[in-house]
Structures are given as C-alpha cells and as structure tokens.
User: Fold Amino acid permease from Paenibacillus borealis.
Amino acid sequence: MISFLKRFLIGRPLKSTELGEQKLNKKKALAILSSDALSSVAYGPEQILIVLVTIGAAAFWYSIPIAIGVLVLLTALILSYRQIIFAYSHGGGAYVVSKENLGKYPGLIAGGSLLVDYILTVAVSISAGADAITSAFPSLHEHKVVIAIVFVILITILNLRGVTESASVLAYPVYLFVLALFILIGTGLYNILTGNVPAELHTSLGTPVAGISLFLLLRAFSSGSSALTGVEAISNAIPNFKSPEASNAAKTLIAMGALLAVMFSGIVVLAYYYGIAPRADVTVVSQIAEQTFGRNAMYFFIQGTTALILILAANTGYSAFPLLAVNLAKDKFIPRMFTMRGDRLGYSNGIIILGVLSMVLIYVFEGKTEQLIPLYAVGVFIPFTLSQTGMMVKWLREKPAGWMQKFIINTVGALISFIVTMMFFLTKFTQVWPVFVFLPILLLVFHRIHKHYEAVADQLRITTCEETIKIEGNVIIVPVAGITHVVMNSLEYAKSLNPQQIIAVYVPFEREEEAIFEEKWRKWQPDIRLVTLYTPYRSIVQPLTKFIDTINWKAAELNHRVTVIIPQFIPKKGWHNILHNQSSLLIRARLLFRSDVIVTTVPYHLKK
Amino acid sequence: MISFLKRFLIGRPLKSTELGEQKLNKKKALAILSSDALSSVAYGPEQILIVLVTIGAAAFWYSIPIAIGVLVLLTALILSYRQIIFAYSHGGGAYVVSKENLGKYPGLIAGGSLLVDYILTVAVSISAGADAITSAFPSLHEHKVVIAIVFVILITILNLRGVTESASVLAYPVYLFVLALFILIGTGLYNILTGNVPAELHTSLGTPVAGISLFLLLRAFSSGSSALTGVEAISNAIPNFKSPEASNAAKTLIAMGALLAVMFSGIVVLAYYYGIAPRADVTVVSQIAEQTFGRNAMYFFIQGTTALILILAANTGYSAFPLLAVNLAKDKFIPRMFTMRGDRLGYSNGIIILGVLSMVLIYVFEGKTEQLIPLYAVGVFIPFTLSQTGMMVKWLREKPAGWMQKFIINTVGALISFIVTMMFFLTKFTQVWPVFVFLPILLLVFHRIHKHYEAVADQLRITTCEETIKIEGNVIIVPVAGITHVVMNSLEYAKSLNPQQIIAVYVPFEREEEAIFEEKWRKWQPDIRLVTLYTPYRSIVQPLTKFIDTINWKAAELNHRVTVIIPQFIPKKGWHNILHNQSSLLIRARLLFRSDVIVTTVPYHLKK
Assistant:
C-alpha cells in the first residue's frame, strides 16, 4: 500500500547508470537554478524605497544611485562566482571554497549559514507566493498556511521524482515571468520616452534632501541587496549540468546575471519615474503594473507570474540544499544518510528534511515569514564574503597567469559583501541576532558528528586491531514461555548447533506455577536443563537479562560465547502483532544494547 | 531519563503480593466508584426541564411525576444490580451477566457498548468540568481544550499510580460535593417550608397544560434518566473491594443509590418550587444556588465542588474500563495486553488507552462533547437492559429459593430500561445513530480477534502437532559491508558453530568495486566463500534477500537450516544511531517476516 503510493507519487526506481540522463542543459538549468535570484526582483526594489520613505518622497531619487551600487555588487558577485565555477568545477560553492582556502571553521560557517538559509528560502518564498495568491483572492486568506504547506508538499514530491522532470515543469513559469517583466519594463520605458508620464511625479536627480545620512543610504543599500539572494545557487549545482559542466554553468550564470540586472534596473527606474511610494497592501511591482496597463488581463498576467515564480523560487533551495548536504556529509560533518541517492537518483533525505523543516517554519510563523527576510539575506552574505575572501587567498597563494585581475575582482566582491553583512548587523540587529545563536550550535553539532565518525572509523579499521581471540565454545540460552511448538522448534535448532551447553529459562509470576512447570518440563525435555526465575514484578525482561548477564560473565572466563535464542512466532497478518505481547523485542533490544551476548531469532510462522 | 520520569510520576514498582493492600474499603469505594453517578445530578434534572420548556413554563410541574418515574427506575436498577453483585461476585457486570445468561453475542453487545461508553464518560465529564471552570473564569475560555486535556493527563497519571492512592485523592471532593448539595437542598427546603419562597413562582401540580403528549413526557423521562449513568460501575469493580467483596460492594451500592435519590429529588423539587427555567448560559443547579444563597462564598463552594466532581466523574471510567477490558481480554475478544498489570498493579494498558482515546474525542469535538450525552446515555441503557434480561433468564433457569421476587425485580428493571432505550432511539435518533455503525464494527473486531487467538492456540498446542523433523545441518550466511572488525567478529562466531557451510555476501553498487573487493577478500579470508551481488538500484535489501531465499530453498531439500548472521555495531550513545544507516534492521525485518530463515545479530560495541 505505502509502496504503491510511493511508486505513484515518485515514479519507478532508476538505475545508477541512468544518472547522466538526469543532467541539466543550460536552458533548463537557468529555469531551475535562477528562480530564486530572479524572484528577488519582486521585493528587492521595494526594500530600498521602504527605507527611503522614512525621510520622505523627496528622497526617492536616491534609489537610482543605490540601484547602481547594487548593480556593481551584482557584477562583482557574478564575475567572482564565474571564477569560482571554473576553479571548483566539482561544485560546492561557498562551503568548498571557504574550507579549502580559509580552513575548516570558515568553511563550516559558510556551509552552516547556507544550510539554514535554504530552509529560509523555501519558507519565505512559499509564504510570499501564498500571500500573492491570497491577495488576489481574499476569501482564501484564512487558509494561507494550508495553501503554503500544500505547495511545499507538491514541490517536495516534484523534487523526489527527480531533477529533470521537475525542471520541465518549472521552466515555463520562470520564462513567463521574465517575459511579463520585459513587457512591463518595455512598455513603461516607451511611455516615459514618448512623454506619456508626467514629469511632476518624480523629483529630479540631485535634489537636496533634508535629514538624509550616509547611515540611512547604506541601510537602504543593504536592504536592496536582498534582491541578490540566490545568485550563488548555480555554483553549488555544477555537477547537475551536462558536460562540459563548468563552461555550461558559467554561461548560465552570466545569462542569469544579465536578466537580473535588466529586470532590477527596469523596476527601479520605473518606480522612480512613476514616483511610486511603498504601500503595505499593494506591492511596488503591482503599482507599476497597474499604472502602466490598468487592471486588465496584462496586469493579472504580471501578478500571476510573480506569484508563481515566488513559489518556484523555493525550488532553488531544493536543488542546492541536498547538494550542499552531500558535500558536508562526505566530509563527515552531518549524517551519512545525506549522501545516499533515492529511487529516482535525487538525494531524497536532503529533499525530505528540507521540506519538513520549511513546513515547520511556515507553521510556527503562521505563514508570516516576511520578518525572516533580513535573517535570510544576512545568511546569504556571510558565505558570499567568506567565499570571495577564500578566492583572494587562493589567487595570492597560487598566482596563476593574470591573477592580479582575478584578485581584484574577488577583493571588490569580498569588500562589498562584507560591508553589506556589517550593515545588516548594525542596522537590523533585532532581526538578525539568531545568527549568533544558531551558527555556534550548528558548528558544535558538526564538530560532534565529525568526532564520532572519526572514532568509529578508527575502531573498525582492521589493521589497527589487536588479534581476535578464538571462540572456544558456545552456551545457548532459550527463554521459554510454555510447552509449545514454538519452543520445540527453537530447542531443535539449538541442539543442531552442538553447543557446549543449552539452558532453558522460564520466568513464573507465581510460586505454584513454578513447581508445576518444572514437573511438566522434566517429562517433556528431560535432557535439557531448565532454570526457573520466579519474579513478583510481572516482567520477564529484568530477571531474564540479569540471569543472562551472570551466565555471560562466567562463560567469558572459559572464552565461550553466549547466544540467546528467542523463539518468535510470526502471525500471518501484520495487524495480528498487536494481539501478542512483544516481550521478545524488548529482551532483544535490552540484550544487544547493554551486553555483548549474541541474539538469535528463530521465526515460527503461523499458517492461519 | 524516561525511566526516571516514569518512576517520578508513577512511583516505584509494586510486587504482585502487594495487591491486597491496594484494595478498597467501602468509604473509599463509594468515593471512587460513585462520582460518575452522583455528578449526573448536575445535569439530569436540567435535561427534563429542557424537554418540558418546549411546551412552556406551565408544564414544569410534570417534572415531579417524571422524577418519580426516574426514582422508580433508579430503585429497580439498584435492587437489580444488588442481586447481580451477589450472583456474580467475581465482577464483570453487564458483560458477564449477559454473556452467561443470554449468550456470546448479547454479552459482546453489552461489553462493546460499555467499553465505548467509558471513553464517552471521560470525554463528556471532563469537558463539562472544564466548561464549569471556564464559566467561572471566562478569560480561560479559549484554553478550554488544553485545560480538559491536562485534566485527562492528570487523572491518567493518578490511575497509573494505583487504585488506592487515587482513591485517597478523590475521596474529599466527592464528599464535599455531597455535603454542598445537602446544605443547598436543606436550606432550600427550609425556605420553602417556612414560606420564604413565593407560591406564584410555580404552577400547582395537576394544572392542565395545552400541547402536552405522552411522547413528550416519555422523551423528558428518557432525558432525565441520563442522571442514572454510572450506577453500574460498582458491579463491574467488585474485585477491587476488600473482602468480603460482594457484601461490601452491595452496601456501597445501596449507599450510592440513596445519596443519588436524595440529591436528584432535592434538585428537582427545588427547581419546581423556584420555578426555574433552563438557560443556555447558567445551569439549573447554579440558578438554584444563586436563588438560595445569592452570589456569596456558599454559592462558589457549590459551583466549585460541582465542577470538581464532574472532572472526577471521569475517574469512574478509569476504574471500570480496565476491569471490563480484562474480562473481554481473558475471553480472547480484545488484545491480551489488557490483562497485564503494570508496575503499580493497575491495568496500565487499559488506563492509557482510555486516556488517549478520550483526549482524541475532546480534541476532535473541541471540548464541546455535550452533544455526545444522548449517545452516552443510550450506551448505558443497552447493557442495563441486557444484564437485567440476563438475570431474568438466570432466575427462570435456576429457580433458587425466593426466585419469584428476584425475577419480578429484574423484569421491572429490564422493561423500564428497554423502554428508555427505545425512547432514545425514537426521540433522539439524530444523536444516537452512531450506535448502529460502531457496535457492528466492534462486534466484528471482537470476532476476528477471537478467531485469531483460537487459531494460534491450535497451532501452538504440542499434542496436536506432527513429529518435528530433525535438523541435519546448518548453512550460515554473513552479509558483509567491508573488511572491518565488525565483520571479523561475526565470521569468528560463525566458524565456532561448525556449520556445514559459511557464505559471505557482498552487495557492490558499482562494477569496479566488485572486482576490487573480491581481490581483497581472497587475501583476507581465503577459506570463506564470498558471493558478490552487483545491483544498480543502491539498495542492498532486495538482492540480499533474493539470494538468501534461493539458498534457503536449496538447503530445505537437504533438511539444512539457514542462519543469517547480521553484524551490528552498537554505538556508545543513543543519538549516534541516526548517524549510521539502519539497513541491518531492514534486512532482519524482511527476513523474519517473509521467510523462515533464522536471524542472528552479533553485536559489536563501540568503545568511544
């Protein structure tokens, strides 16, 4: 039943050799990996205006120089990540770059930040998408959390089906969104150039504004740079590309950067010319669209594709999180299960964990995850800074041909990223303080896991081990619950192993029972020694394990091993199990975890 | 940790021989077993008025004759159950009586109804108690479900601690409630007799009322008889009494009946004289108390003890449900686990199941379980009818001295109970229809479980079995994951058993890996045969079990048994388990449940 449902939702299992077929061409990769970055256009420009509006509408012209700053940062990031793609074509992004050039802990800080960040990506993007839908259809508002969670489940299933298939599904909305924004920006610019937009709507560039400060401008700049979240996704996902991986990934990165630059500048310019002020109930993009087209089909097309791409932006998290998890797991910092490919060759465990955690975030914040945006942005800029600093170190150390130019690019990127990160801490501390709590905890967990894996490897390694002591003989203990077929079956098996000794153990709860059973046993199995262990506490686990421990201790002296044979009858139908007491499971767990006796289960299958 | 918590909440384990000390004396038994019946006074009279008010206030005088009818029914029930206590002093109540005299299925109908009913008792009583509290403190209203669930948890813990201790806790509130109502009724009657209550408040007895019908009166009567739920509790719990059990139980029953009769009549009479009409927001008892005392300390004392006893009424369910479950489980109709006494000698499984199911009911109905009252009442009157019919049959069959009188008592009881049951079906079908759905399902489940237990007993019985075929030899299969200490340990054990054959099995996921491992193995363990099973599907369970099935099939021909030795390393700390994949568990489960190979687990304890 469960297995049928799994087949239906996820599809048939794929062979490992089918992996190549799952790889991405450039067009699909652009769709699957850039929805996060591109969707940021829907809220990035607005973040700038939200800061500037605290001074007044007169300050709006500052959005133009600030946008230029963001574009410079974007250019620096794109160029820097392009260099990373070629230098680290096996993928890994900020984690690998920081680890290899700066050391283990900077690497783990970058990796940990990103790991948490992808969960935030999913929660924030899906919630924002659900917001967009419920804004369009207010009657759905009270079901917002349910809608968001359904979307997370759908995207999780799509990703469990496999990368290529989800890419096919996701390609259209992303390209439709790009198309919609290009039409909007084109029409808007045409209107401005043909003089259809009244000049009094905006203050001209350079107008002096009272109360403006460098602090405020930097704050607006850092807010606006939240539009750049998601640009690192491609460098993490290089192994997902068709070969030549690095070259394809680099081209895709440039294409994404160009699209993002055009769309971001377009929205900022239109907002400035239209003199749009941020409003709580209507987004800036929506205001621009309404002023350009009115509330017609085109308006709804733009709003619809925006909502869709916000939901799909979550998919970037689904592509990047499992791959980063694999890198961390291979280095033994998180559980090994993240390295295993599922039936459809995706890293199922990473996909499922990401889905579950983001649903928890959505549920806990009741879908109001907007307040997580600064935390999300700072979680992106920490690894940006680290990876670019790492690249600086790399060029300085290796000094390849033309390294000076590369070094300068990364230095500029690192500096701007660092400033943005600092701006977040200085201007938005109340929202980003959890970084200082969760990052140390995460680092501690990474450390503990790593230590454990190293210790296990040490203990298992055959070369380092003392000589095994040969086992001289075996003692077999058979707990019996009565004189039945099941017990007989187990005794026959015990005899066939020819051990040094067989002991049957019976635990009576009443004194009278004890004598009666001993009598019966003597008649039935006179050759096998029976030990009875009376207990007044109605639990057989305690006296039995105590007895076994004693025997085991004596046997160890003779270099004998103790095997406990547990007769277990297996009912014909699963539900029958609740009708029988499961003390055999308890005994087995207790013995295996607390002592070193061997536990053998002899099944007795019921036929009806 | 869990075990510490358990000790703290439940107390130290008790010996079976300490059972006697846990038994109840009459005073405690009255408190523990009658809270359900006595608390019914809080809503029974009101139910009558709710029906009469549909005709008008003039019809209220009919509550007096109806109450007399209820008192007759109560007397019949008490006398009848007194006879049951002496006839069936080992306990069991309606289930045992119906089963022994009417046959298996009537017995199961009675048992099934009561089983469900005790769950309803807990849910309804606790919800009503929480209602009373939140009525007193309206600010708590939004937390009603949480409050109710906390109470269920507390009562569950009290009961897991053991019967006597919970009785000590519960005795005071019950007696305080009785005291409170006696003061109320006494003061009220004094006011009436001294002429302090104006006569115009009530219409005099016998006033003709337009629109009254026999149907309506019977409906009011059946509603009022919901005050009698709970009177069967004592007869189910006879084994809990100190000896002489039957005599003590009978005395307790009479005392309870007398208290119930006085309190019920008192409330009905006061309500009639005060001319009280049922209101949605204030209970009838509260109205009487307010009119008698005003809103002073005495009023809050009455309201407080009423709330408390409603919550404690749930405790009756906790005393009766596990004992009924034991009876059903001994007859093999429900899982055997209900017959086991816990650490504190209570039937823990029954207590826990009851707690969980009633919490589910409270959660699903959001604490508004009042609508379950008719269903609850009908679930009580079905077994009332069956058990008294059973007693009729018993007297007719056995004809002991003075049987005629006993027969008449039970016949009257059976007839009235039957009429009440029918009235519920006729007048409140929309609320009691679930009986017709759940009772058949429950009977089917009882039947299926019984059939299974019978089948198992048949198969296990040693006398009926064919001669066991002697095992001629053993084949041992060791799945190996690498060349490690854990594997070596398992191989040494396999060798010590001197089987006919040892086969090591390795499942590589890649072709290259296969050859490399075979080469290594040949150098390491040249004497042990290695089989490699390449798979492209990244799961070792499938190919491994297929291989084992094949070997098992061949071995069966030679009368050899196949043992699979699973090496398992046990980490030092519990949380380490999530860091390792649990395929050994999967393999074990698959092998045991689907084939008849023997599975041996060889533990390898990690030291760090």
